[in-house]
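Q: Could you write out the predicted structure for this multi-component system? I'm mainly interested in how the pieces pack against one another.
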Amino acid sequence: MRLEPINNPSLARSLVPPTIALGATIVFASLLAMVAGANPFSVFGLILSGALGSKFAILETLNRATPLIFTGLAAAVAFRAKFWNIGAEAQLYAGALLTVLLGTGLLPWPSIALLPTLAVFAILAGATLLLVPALLKTRYGVDEVVTTLLFNFIFLLFISLLLEGPIKDPMGMGWPKSARVISEARLPRLVDGLRLHWGFSLAIFSAICIWIIQTRSTLGYEMRAVGLNKQAAAFAGIPVNIVLVKTALLSGGLAALAGFSEVSGLKGSLTLDLSPGFGYTGIIVAMLALLHPLGVIVAALFVAGIFVGADSMSRAADVPTYLADIMLATALLFMVLAIMLTRFRVVRD
Amino acid sequence: MSSNLVEALRLTEITKRFGELTANDAVSFSVNKGEVVALLGENGAGKTTLMNILFGQYTADSGTVSVFGQTMPPGNSRAALDAGIGMVHQHFTLADNLTVQENITLGTRPLFNPRLDRVSARAKIIDLSTRFHLLVAPDARVGNLSVGERQRVEILKALYRDVQILILDEPTAVLTPQETDDLFATLRLAIADGLAIIFISHKLHEVMTIADRVVVLRHGKMTGGVRIENTDKHALATMMMGTEAIPPQVSLANPGASLLELRNLTTPNIGNMPGLKSISLALKSGQIIGLAGVSGNGQASVAAVVGGVHKPDEGQLVLKGRAVQKWSPRDAVNNGIARIPEDRHKTGSIADFDLTENAILERYSTAAFNKGGWLNWRSSRAFANRIIEKYDVRCPSADTPIRLLSGGNMQKLILGRVLETDPQIILANQPVRGLDIGAVNYVHSQLLAARDRGAAVLLISEDLDEIMALSDVIYVISDGRISPGFKRGEMTPAQLGIWMGGQGFDRTVNHAT
């Protein structure tokens, strides 16, 4: 058996394997639900109603999707140029850190001035954090997968250190958390009385911007060229290393916006459980979206829906929420296989 | 030579389709013991597919392969090897860090045999190498050998396995004319010994020299099978191409001012490829300079410096009378150097980019296609369409990914991309490798036209015929050194071959022109 590339895949070939992948994911998850002693149909019904069943559920899903859109974009942008940023988790916390440093009263400005300032400083923090691995890669050829991944642990320990000391909330009854940001530093809610905030709109807006940058701008063209064929790009005169550094800055900034949006829009303060791995899940989101910036929105909603739905399902059906993690993992594996099958056909010799 | 004919190999009605493409269409021929059969055809004629079927790497849709009367099981490489079929590939399959003997015996005995029979293996290798004039030291490391020597190791490797049928895929592409003569002497000894040889080539004069019979393929069909004494070059060319392609006429050159000079350029070695050793070369307006040489003798370094990929470490690059300080690919492009890279797939184009995106690859940041950091797709597409029309690029549209194009059409786009800027200097590195004859003549006529417009052309090629046909002045590069310039018609291929082999330099050390 061997694989033969398909030059012009038909529409059916582009659509059928991903559909089968989705189906296979559901079948596999059903088997697991049965192992856990529940009826798969009711489990999926509960997940669906938990994610989409009410206005509250839908808004909660959108809420959960917001940081995933940012981290998904961060991965999508970097991976498009074959810069493997695995450090969105650390960059997210860098954005959150700057938000609480400047937003807890240091800058006593009105919202209209303060919120953009916080966002900009969050972006700068995330970009700076990724600048180090980017320079190590372009200057000395250090593998960015290793550096960005290890940076996550280093930076989270650094945040932990800050939360135990310098930025610990004096009114926090000893909990390792920062002070709350002032009300001018809170992103307003999109819908009164519910938790959905303007961070979601900012995420959608960012995705559209990235899409336009990738398809129309010089930088987007350069990033795609470097990602597809570094050798040809360099020969043609594209400054490969500069493009990689710019890509890193953009990617780090996007991941940091997730931290800003979570603190300013949702939590109000910085704790060590601000992100339940949004940085890593963003990689899955980007892969499911085939690195397309608008696809990231859809993929983030899908992933958020599964998480939110699984939370409520687990309360009702006594099936662990781990089912959501496993569903995502299988969805990703099947999807990677399906994507390969849209581009190659298996030939039996 | 073949008085009592024993049929070694027979291919019967072999047909192989890839989707809509018929790579081999009912091809039948046989090879007898003690004869050389040449398989002649342009690139894409189906020669490689046929050999892959013979080797069991592909399964034919219909037809059979038989060796000494035994029908081979389809799609079984092991059986092909066991039946005594051996192949010397165009790209060698040797381990650089092992010795000649280790390479030859690799895979012929169990890996963990405690009693390695080195002595008898060595005796066999020495016996073979003297019998067939394949001189190479058994203890030399393959990494230190020249290309010609490596080819000898490949042939020895096949002979060591007692092959009955030896296939050589374009074996002369990497050899000097003298080495080619040596190879032919070896092949004559081998057929006298009873081997059957398939010689794959597209060079007519070599086929006329070595083959007993010729099989011609065109578009997967067999268009001829003749004995060599019943044919000539013209008849073979017609069978190969359908019509006889006429190479472009070359008028007299009218050289003008020197546009680009390399002065005492020295570069470091790249792997086991030599760097440049203080070479000097001047490119003049209205002149084609040919740089001949066996592959891997420093051509890549010359191309890298002229094309802006490497900055000269020692020595100078003088552009229109001024030594360059800053030197990058973009500087080269901005200074009017048109660069046709050696590898159009890996360096010349981005496979998944469409024709428009590939057309602007070198100049996307210029005002013609760019305004304030945003690309102008309208003017980009217009530029691509202009190239497609003017240079006859056959493609569905400017939005087609370039990987779907044939090599010839891909090269036409690259040619158009660089020639549309009216370049003063053209660096053409192996511009026609792998192209069919129609495309070859097209590229050559474009280079000649650019010369006649007043451009300075540096043509780097391993194909001596191409160099001799086009160049007004020929330089030979060998081991990073460069010969004096020879005018058109001054040297015969054999004389150039002496320089390509490295002799001749000893008398003229540090020659500058």
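A: Regarding packing and overall arrangement: The longest strand of chain B covers residues 7-18.
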